[in-house]
Amino acid sequence: MLETKIHKLSELLSHSSIPYLFVDLKSQNVLYCHDQIKNLLGLNVSLPCPMDLIFEDSIKVSTLLKQKSNQKGNHQIRCKKANLETLPVSVQFSSVDDVLNDEVEIYILYIQWNQITETVHHPQNVGLEIPFLTTDSFGNVQFANTRFLDFFSISLEQIQKKSIFELLSLPEPVKSNLLKTNIKHDIDIYSGLGEKQKFQLQSFVTPNYSNSINNITILLLDLSSLQNAENTIRYGEEKLKTFFATINNGFVIVNQEAIIIEVAPIFKFLLFQLLAFEVGENIFQYFDLSERNKLIEVLNLSISSQSTQRAEFDYSLLGEDRTFEIKFIPVRKLNPNDKKVMLVFSDITETKRLDRQLIESMKFASIGEIAAGLAHEINNPLQSALLYLEDLITVDETDPNERKNILQKIEAANLRIRDLVKALLDLGRMESPNRDFVSPYYILVRTSELVEVSCRKKNIQFTRHAGPNLPGIFVRWQEIEQVLINCVVNSINALSEMEIPRENPRIELGIDFLRSQKKDWVVFSVEDNGPGIDDDTLEKVFLPLFTTRRNKQGTGLGLSISKKIIAEHGGEIYIKTKNGVGTKVEIFLPAHADENG
């Protein structure tokens, strides 16, 4: 109980500028010691501790404290430092028996360090940008900082001969209270150059226990600066309102049950204006069951992982099909049970349209890259078919088996031409916006048919491999095919443009199954033994418009668009490379056990 009372007393005295301690004469112990005293003495002791640890002569201190009639005076004693050196100090003390109401002999000692106070003549805030000065209880100026002196165009020696009332014209109520209590008052002050300026005067009275004379600190706060700051803040608020009024987004905060807690100002976001979201409603009530379940799953993932997630959905507004994106951003709170998420709705219809155009442009750039090789590949079976056909026309072949053999060769050549033309036409066709459940091997074969011709033309060995028991993938397969073609074309260009050609240039296209981070992945890979990529270039390869083939018609869009396509399918694309050795591109796509995923 006593310890609790001492602790409360120390809290009440915490504002004191004079360090203090509590001693108990009955136990001859120090019950509480101010941190400043501990630091100056270099003490590291647990409290309570014997008085002998702090005072050189504890008996003298005890005798002094019992002389209650002298408790208002200053007394000289010596304190012990941890290295046994002693320091002279001035002490004032008072009994706390009346406060504690116990049968105790406890005193509070205020300690002032003689050797320190002798060297401290002026406040330490000399460099403070706010004009300030200090006076004694009678208003006589003791010190003023540089900002104050410059404002009044006066020296420190001149100002120390003046009273505060000579410097400042104050109304009578402020004048009479200035030296007694803390005040705050707005005044007009004329500078040494005769310019009037508006200030807020703030004064603080600090008791001086060594001589019972108060010190008064006076600050002058420039109200014009404060008003400028307020104007700046107001201007910023208006700019912020203007910014929000022009962005095409909707902001909603929901809890983990998807119940709306707060809806930000709607401004121009059309979806919110038509659906009229209200606090207390379920944010996903306007969606069909399958879409609702998908979005709730993303919401739960954002909360559980405390990470930003994204989801897209299509919605018909005013008879027009639009595509929207939702960013799920966890709102981090001190209370872990307070689980809220900010949903940021964005209309990405136009963005998706532009993305489609970029993908189409990349697609036709790839067609141009492989068209020459395909023309050569088509010409070979075409010439063979024509030769066999000429034999049938000019030679009257009577053997039915030989005639059948020639016709089968003509058919095989034409089927090869048909497949190549179909593959090229499929590549150029606008793909469906919907995803299909397909075999990754099907994409591998189609891609191989289109690129192996270009490899042969460049004398590059092309191989492919596929792991066993590959699961299906749920994708827009034309886009995945396009990404693979783009990666193979990059490898072809890298190998064919080497200053010192490889003796055995090669490219391998493959598919494997991988389980990583508790998820199943189908991994496409494109590996070459080309020149590799240096570290500086590797950091930039996915940046839009970055290319090392600017003088060879490179666009710098291929890899950036490829990365975007794979990300939209929930996958990742990585590049492993060693400068001078080769490069391997790995494309991770989520595996699906069946068409329903």
TrEMBL record:
Keywords: ATP-binding, Kinase, Nucleotide-binding, Phosphoprotein, Transferase, Two-component regulatory system. Pfam families: HATPase_c, HisKA, PAS_9. It comes from Leptospira limi. It comes from the Bacteria. It catalyses: ATP + protein L-histidine = ADP + protein N-phospho-L-histidine. Its EC number is 2.7.13.3. The keyword NAD does not apply. CDD domains: HisKA (cd00082), PAS (cd00130). SUPFAM superfamilies: ATPase domain of HSP90 chaperone/DNA topoisomerase II/histidine kinase (SSF55874), Homodimeric domain of signal transducing histidine kinase (SSF47384), PYP-like sensor domain (PAS domain) (SSF55785). InterPro entries: HATPase_C_sf (IPR036890), HATPase_dom (IPR003594), His_kinase_dom (IPR005467), HisK_dim/P_dom (IPR003661), HisK_dim/P_sf (IPR036097), PAS (IPR000014), PAS-like_dom_sf (IPR035965), Sig_transdc_His_kin-like_C (IPR004358). GO terms for molecular function: ATP binding. Residues 373-593 form the Histidine kinase domain. This is histidine kinase. Signal peptide: none annotated.
